Amino acid sequence: MELRHLITFKTIVEKGGFKRAAESLDYSQSSVTVHVKELEEELGKPLFDRIGRKVFLTNYGRQFHPYAVKIADLYKEATEIMQIDDKPKGNLVLGVTEIFSQYRIPSLLLEYKKRYPDVNLSLRSLENKEISAALKNGQIDLAFVLERNDWFDKELTIEKLKEESVVLTYPVNQENVENTILVTEETCSYKSMMETYVQENQIEVKNTLNFSSLEAIKQCVISGLGFSILPYFSVEKELATKQIQGENIQLNHTGNTTFIAYHKNKQLSPAIKSMISLMKEHRLHWDE
C-alpha cells in the first residue's frame, strides 16, 4: 500500500472531488484516478460511488477513511520530527593534534558551545600518528589536523583548510645554539622539515633534543636552548614581542596544511556538520 495513494484518497474526501484533489496535490486528474483505482484493487473494495460528476464514499470508503487519515497524519508528524531533529545535539568527539590544544581550537570550541548548547562536546588531544586509527575505529568523530600537504588516507575524507607558513625560530641571544636543534616525535612533519633544513644548509648538528610537543619546543627556544622550525601561528605573538627571532623559510619539499578529516563512511550528524561549517568560518580570520 503506497502512502501517496492514501494521501490522494484523504485529499479527495477533504476537497470533495477528484479535480480539486488533483489541483491541491499538483497532480493530473488522471493520476488521481489511477491512485484510487490501484488502492481499490489492493483493498478489493470500492471506496467511491461515482454519480454523475460527483463522488461519494461507499460504506467501505467511510470505514477506511479514518485509517487513511491516521496513517497520513503520522507520516506528516514523523517528517516534521525529522526536520526538528536537524538541530545539532548529541555527542561529538573531536580529535586534534597537540598544537591545536593551545591554538585556534579554544576560541572555536567556545563559539561552538554558545551556538549549539545541546551538543555534548568532547576533545581528545592526539599525536599525528594516532589520528587515522582513531577515526577508523570510531574513537573520534572528526579530526582537526596539522599535517604535510600531501597527507592522504584512502579510508578518510580529508578537506584542506589552510596551508600554513613555517618559521625558523631561534633565541634572541644566539650564543651556543647554532648546533642544537629541537625536534618533535618521529611522525610529526616538523621533525622532517627540521632535518631537511639542516641537510640543505649543511649545518653540522652536535645536539638534537626531542620533545613531545611543539609548545614545549617554543618555550625552549625562548629560553635560549636551541633553534627549530615551528608553524607561524604558534609563534606570532612571541615574534611581535621579540621574545624570539624568526624568519619565514621555503623548503624544497612539501609544506604543512591544516586539515579536517573524518571516515569516508561516516554518517555526518548535524553536530558534525555544524562543527565543520564553523571551522571553515573561523579559518577566514586566522590571519587577522
Task: Present the secondary structure layout.
Blueprint: H1 3-15, H2 18-25, H3 29-43, E1 48-51, E2 54-57, H4 59-84, E3 90-97, H5 105-115, E4 119-126, H6 128-136, E5 142-148, E6 156-164, E7 166-171, E8 180-183, H7 189-200, E9 207-210, H8 214-223, E10 228-231, H9 232-240, E11 244-248, E12 256-263, H10 270-283
Parallel strand pairs: 3-4, 3-5, 8-9
Antiparallel strand pairs: 1-2, 5-12, 6-12, 7-10, 7-11
Helix pairs in contact: 1-2, 1-3, 1-4, 2-3
Pfam families: HTH_1 (PF00126), LysR_substrate (PF03466)
Keywords: DNA-binding, Transcription, Transcription regulation
GO molecular function, one term: transcription cis-regulatory region binding
Task: Explain how this protein is built.
This protein is of the alpha/beta class and 288 residues long. The chain folds into three domains: 3-84, Arc Repressor Mutant, subunit A, CATH 1.10.10; 90-164 and 256-283, D-Maltodextrin-Binding Protein, domain 2 (3-Layer(aba) Sandwich); 166-248, Periplasmic binding protein-like II (D-Maltodextrin-Binding Protein, domain 2, 3-Layer(aba) Sandwich). It contains ten helices and twelve strands. A five-stranded mixed beta sheet has the order 4-3-5-12-6. A three-stranded antiparallel beta sheet has the order 10-7-11. Helix 7 (189-200) links the parallel strand 8 and strand 9. Helix 1 crosses helix 4. The model has no long low-confidence stretch (mean pLDDT 89).
